[in-house]
Design brief:
The protein has 379 residues and is of the alpha/beta class. Helix 11 links the parallel strand 8 and strand 9. It has 3 domains: 136 residues, D-Maltodextrin-Binding Protein, domain 2, CATH 3.40.190.10; 103 residues, Helix Hairpins (Orthogonal Bundle); 84 residues, D-Maltodextrin-Binding Protein, domain 2, CATH 3.40.190.10. Helices cover 50% and strands 15% of the residues. Strands 7, 8, 9, 10, 11 and 12 form a 6-stranded mixed sheet that branches.
Length: 379
């Protein structure tokens, strides 16, 4: 074989090798230091790879759960994914909300990982990462004890029921008196007798006419009496509909024992929330009086014991705790207010913010994040 043919054959083999094996070798090669994607690896400050961060956290199921000697939960697992991508190590320090905020502010904590809400007041002292979860504040109220017969009977002795009944009775008496005034002399057999007897007859006539029963034992004969009867028959159609609705409302066994339906009903209620929380700030901004508790667990325990009428706090945290401990005693209202964005907190000017943000965004776009949320929060 000629030298030209040999060189041509060698070139073809080399080209074939490059086409087949180069992509495989490229895929197996590390894309950055510690196998990190180039964009994230390049953003990590020099010398921080392998660094151990002091991470402050606060128990807030299902975002942070104490499990044995360590922590788990939605926020914790997200942070572990971020830390692994950046080649960072973690030393967890448990504290309360106040300690979490002050620890990051004074630099004793490198980062706070919890269910921490981003607020303007906190942003003035701390730096926050990209938010990884958005929700709102919710209201928890006591659950009424079932649709029992006793609960229904109690409604018959409620002020609302008596008010509706007395109002209807007054209207019946008014139209009955008008008929009696017209009929007492010309129709004495049906509306005559003493004033008390005549008014009773008029009341009876108004009642049976309103209900369209119309026994026929009493009926107006004079022109004035019949005019009153005609007006009453048309008016009774509207009155009986309104009365039925009022009675139904007063007898309905509402699941909510306090009657609180939204944030607008909190001004006259005994409200509790967690001290130093975003919920406390939101209530304060709205001018709603409230008492403070050290933890959400303490606030919900007081609600279940009847010491307060409502608890206001982050919706996913309350829903989780109520579902776990008070499924039949406490109800979390479905509507939320005051949007809450959860993020990690860093000291102001932290060089880790940018690489952490990139790692968070990358993970939030993955299917793993969707699976993780469903596992901790439900579908």
């Amino acid at each position: 074989m000629s030298s030209y043919s040999s060189r041509r054959l060698a070139a073809c083999c080399l080209a074939l090798f490059a086409c087949v094996w180069a992509p495989l070798l490229w895929a197996q090669a590390p894309s950055g230091s510690n196998g990190q994607p180039p964009a994230i690896a390049s953003a990590l400050p020099a010398g921080d790879s392998g660094r151990t961060l002091t991470v402050g956290t606060k128990i807030a199921p299902p975002f942070v759960v104490k499990s044995g000697d360590g922590y788990s939960g939605l926020s914790i697992e997200l942070w572990q994914e971020v830390a692994d991508k950046l080649g960072l190590k973690t030393k967890y320090v448990g504290t309360d909300l106040k300690g979490l905020l002050s620890g990051v502010e004074n630099g004793k904590l490198n980062i706070a990982v919890a269910a921490l809400t981003v607020t303007a007041q906190r942003e003035a002292k701390l730096d926050f990462t990209y938010p990884f979860y958005s929700s709102g504040l919710a209201i928890a109220v006591p659950t009424q004890g079932g649709n029992s017969t006793w609960q229904t009977i109690k409604r018959f002795f409620s002020w609302q029921f008596f008010t509706a009944l007395l109002t209807l009775s007054a209207v019946l008496l008014a139209f009955g008196a008008l008929v009696w005034l017209f009929e007492r002399r010309h129709n004495a057999d049906e509306f005559g007798g003493s004033p008390l007897h005549g008014l009773a007859s008029g009341f009876w006539w108004a009642a049976v006419t309103m209900t369209t029963v119309g026994y026929g034992d009493k009926s107006p004969r004079t022109a004035g009496g019949r005019l009153v009867g005609l007006v009453w028959m048309f008016a009774a159609v509207i009155i009986i509909s309104s009365f039925t609705a009022a009675i139904a409302t007063s007898l309905t066994v509402n699941k909510l024992a306090t009657g609180i339906q939204s944030v607008n009903d909190l001004n006259s209620a005994r409200v509790a929330t967690v001290a130093h929380s975003a919920a406390a700030q939101a209530l304060n901004d709205r001018g709603i009086a409230f008492s403070r508790r050290d933890t959400l667990a303490a606030a919900l325990a007081d609600l279940a014991a009847g010491q307060v009428d409502a608890v206001v706090y982050d919706a996913p945290l309350m829903q989780y705790r109520v579902r776990e401990k008070y499924p039949n005693k406490i109800t979390v209202l479905p509507n939320t207010f005051e949007r809450q964005d959860y993020a990690f907190a860093l000291p102001q000017g932290s060089p880790l913010r940018e690489p952490i943000n990139r790692a968070i965004l990358e993970y939030l776009e993955s299917n793993q994040w969707t699976f993780l949320k469903n596992r901790y929060l439900g579908q």
